[in-house]
Amino acid sequence: MVEERAWLNRTVWGMALTSFLSDLGHEAQSTLLPGFMAVLGLPPLALGAVEGLADAASSFMKLGAGWLSDRIGRRKGLVVGGYLSTGLASGFIAMAAGWPLILFGKFFGWLGRGLRGPLRDALLTDSIPPEARGRAFGFHRAGDTVGAILGPFAAVLVLGWATSHGLATLAFQRRLMAWTLVPGVLSALAFAFLVKERVRSRTAPLSFRHALGQMPETFRSYLTGVGIFGAGDYAHTLLILAAAQLLAPACGPARAAALGGLLYVWHNIVYALSSYPAGALADRFHNHRRILGLGYGVSVAVPLLLMLAFHQGAATVPLMALVFALAGLVNGLQDTLEKSTTADLVPADHRGLGFGLLGAVNGGGDFISSFLVGALWTLHPLWGFGYAAVLMALGSAVTLAGARAARA
Asked: Which of 149, 163, 260, 353 is the most buried (most CB within 10 A)?
């Protein structure tokens, strides 16, 4: 019994609590952001561009941070700084009068996210036995996502109460946005005091280019599928905007916007519930990559259903609940199994860079997908979601083909 539970140690618990607090803050911010930008008169293209550019900044930071941490043999202090900057970003966004300061806030926060992500995942991998990687990453992701449930839910409740009492002014929304920095700052403190870093020796002082050359060919082919899928995997804050537009004919704009926020909470509930089972299933069958490819395939249903709804000009709440549930299910599979597969494929001495490459590929894909889906949506929603469906299907096919080749 002791061996079975050995992976659920203080570091895993501490990381889960840290991610819970961080997501409590920045997911509440993400829920408030579309409506906040709408009040400021900014179009869907602005939301897509802000999300995409922030993800691109995060990608570059992930690459450098992962490589540097492998060289110096230390990761914890950088992770604490990354969580702190992500938490403080809400303060900049709350002061915005237009898209430039919103972009700066997202940029600053997502630089911190890029700094912390691969280093935290490498620390987590170092603290657990290899046979429990799926469960450990799934447990961490579940803790992360519980915060992503409660944050948006609290934001929707408070904003709904303020709207019903005629208090949802721009000034009120600014104050509400500013409060989201509190759990973000607490997340940095939780990581600093609860997470233990194992002492590691420094790796050979390889140049960044040489270190890239040390990555296994199996890992490179794996990243190809991840990158293709990511180029169609737009930011899910766009789902809130889609729900607000599609439900407005039946519910009215104000109620549709509130329902969009609640549906995002539902999305995150499914996300949390699917993370650990996905990791446990992959551990049991020893095939993380294949299950990930199947999850990618399921995701194609989301843009297809949205295309159907936009073609009809409206949607029902049950249909949108299905869309958000499928998106949450895929997120749970994706975030857990992309990381556990990376841990399996990358040597320990280059683990920071490996997770950095994964994050960079995902971030680059997010930039491409969020920007293009937002831009194509401005022309017509069918174009944006049609593009997403094609890239997701192709990414699924490439990932499944790579899984078959690796087992041959």
From this structure: 353
